[in-house]
Amino acid sequence: MILLALLAPLIAFQGAAPAEHGASTQEARPAPVPESDKPKADEHGVTLGKEHAAPSEHEGLVHPEGKGTGAEHEGGIAEHIFHHVSDETWVPLGFWVGARHIDLSITKHVINMWIAAGILLIVLALAVRRRALVPKGGYSLVELFVMFIRDEIAVKNIGHHADLYTPYLCSAFFFILFMNLCGLLPIPAMGGFPGISTATGNLGITMVLASFTFVLTQVAGMRAQGAVGYWVHLVPSGVPKWLWPIMIPVEVLGLFTKPFALTVRLFANMVAGHIVIFFLLALTVLISPFVAPVSVAFALGIFMLELFVGLVQAYVFTMLSAVFIGMTQHAH
Hints:
Elements: H1 2-28, E1 40-42, E2 45-48, E3 51-53, H2 55-58, H3 70-85, E4 89-91, E5 94-97, E6 100-103, E7 106-107, H4 108-127, H5 137-158, H6 162-182, H7 203-225, H8 229-232, H9 244-286, H10 292-327
Antiparallel strand pairs: 1-2, 2-3, 4-7, 5-6
Helix pairs in contact: 1-3, 1-9, 1-10, 3-9, 4-6, 5-6, 5-10, 6-10, 7-9, 7-10, 9-10
């Protein structure tokens, strides 16, 4: 499965390269023109018909034999890579509210998010259908993760109210983990299906996940300290009153830097790994097919690292969410 995941993009690159090269060659060869209409050089530069073009403008023309198409070749591969990791509208939906359009389009990453959620529900349903006092098989693995999140993350960072927030932490962990792992499946776009892509590589999705943590953090703080007491104790006690005009904006800004850190960390780590894998595979097109064993070997190492990163990023998001919630349980 791992080799298939790496060879599928490699085959796609090898298949796309000749097509792009052929298209660029056809576009580079212009139709025959009369001898009188061909460009001529004189003291004014290059004569195009009755107009004069500077030599610098003529240098931008493509050579008839297709020379100088290396930059276009590299640009096509880069576009192919970034097209894989970027989002695109698949089913346009939306409505107008006055002069404002509300976009509810179903995109490639939304479909992949639904796929990850469906696989998660199926896996958990199959794992817990035979619960027993002594856990076995898949149920034992699920219980291991849940117990770890509750005892090592929730209890140690939140305290005696950890049971209230453990369900959210478990949901966030498993959902992010399955989105990260599903993004590594080697399923390309075909037959109207947009293909598999990492949903957590979308800044909008990671921002929404971080927003859930942000809202829950504020609710947890007001529940623990009171609706008024939480905001009154936003500035740590013991700070001189003349520093309050400085500390209040700093503390309010700190409320929003926490979800920002969650958003960017998860997004950047998932996108970076996929781009590195695809660029390593693209070396067979950019350099030579003979470097395929080396590029595939390095891509395999990055792929194995991505499996670990997918688990680590789910853990980091859950851990930081628990830390942020725990910071609001007591006044500063």
